[in-house]
Design goal:
Shape: elongated
Number of helices: 5
Number of strands: 0
Largest sheet: none
Order of helices and strands: HHHHH
Helix content: over 70%
Strand content: under 5%
Structural class: mainly alpha
C-alpha cells in the first residue's frame, strides 16, 4: 500500500566531504614532529634507566637493576613502534608532496596552454602589418623633421662664418703681438758677486756642515 502515500522515498546519495589537502598535510607534518619529540624523550629515558641500573648493580641492588632494565625494554619497544609510525608518515609526506607538485605543474601547464591560445588569437598578422606601416610613417616623419632642423642649423652657421673668421684673425694677431714683445724685450743685466760675498757664502756652507 505504499503507492497510496506517494511511493517509497528515494535515498539521496551523500556527497563525500571535500578533503582539504593542505590542512591534511599540515596535520601529518605536525604529527611527525610530535612523534620525533616523543622518540627523543624516550631515548633520554632509556639512557637514564641504563645508567641507574648500572648504579644499582654497583650497590649490589640486583632487584632494582632488573626492574630498571625491564622498564628500559618497555621504552625501547615503544620507540620501535614510534619509529615505524614515523617512517609511514614520512612516506605519506613524500607521496603528498609529489602529488601536490604534480597537481601544481598540471594546473600551470593548462593555464599556460590557455595563455598561449589567447596570445595567438590576439597576435593577428593583419595587426602586425598595420603596426609595420605606422612605424614606417613615423620614421619618414622623423627624417623630415631632422632634415628641417639640420638645414636651419647649416644656414645659421653659414651666416656666422664671416664673424668666426674675423675672430680667428683677431686671436692670431694678439698671439703674434705677444711673441714680438717677448723677442724685443731687453735681457736683464747679469748679477756680479763680489769676492767678499763669495767668501761669506763659503763660510756659511762650512758652518752648515756642523749642524
Amino acid at each position: 500500500m505504499s503507492w497510496l502515500f506517494g511511493g517509497k522515498k528515494k535515498k539521496t546519495k551523500k556527497t563525500p566531504p571535500k578533503i582539504d589537502i593542505y590542512s591534511t598535510k599540515k596535520k601529518i607534518d605536525d604529527q611527525v614532529k610530535f612523534t620525533e619529540m616523543k622518540i627523543t624523550k624516550h631515548e633520554k629515558l632509556i639512557e637514564d634507566l641504563k645508567q641507574d641500573a648500572k648504579a644499582a648493580l654497583k650497590k649490589k641492588d640486583r632487584k632494582k637493576a632488573i626492574m630498571l632494565m625491564k622498564k628500559k625494554k618497555l621504552y625501547e619497544a615503544e620507540n620501535s613502534k614510534l619509529e615505524g609510525m614515523r617512517m609511514m608518515m614520512e612516506q605519506q609526506q613524500m607521496n603528498m608532496d609529489r602529488e601536490i607538485n604534480n597537481k601544481n605543474v598540471f594546473e600551470c601547464m593548462i593555464e599556460g596552454n590557455k595563455a598561449v591560445e589567447h596570445l595567438t588569437k590576439e597576435a593577428d598578422i593583419d595587426q602586425f602589418e598595420d603596426i609595420r606601416e605606422k612605424h614606417i610613417e613615423f620614421e619618414d616623419r622623423n627624417l623630415e623633421i631632422n632634415d628641417f632642423f639640420a638645414g636651419y642649423l647649416d644656414d645659421q652657421c653659414a651666416d656666422a662664418e664671416d664673424d668666426i673668421q674675423e675672430l680667428i684673425d683677431e686671436i692670431e694677431k694678439e698671439e703674434m703681438d705677444k711673441i714680438n714683445n717677448i723677442i724685443n724685450r731687453p735681457l736683464p743685466a747679469a748679477k756680479v758677486h763680489s769676492k767678499e760675498e763669495k767668501v761669506s757664502r763659503e763660510e756659511e756652507d762650512l758652518l752648515a756642515e756642523l749642524n
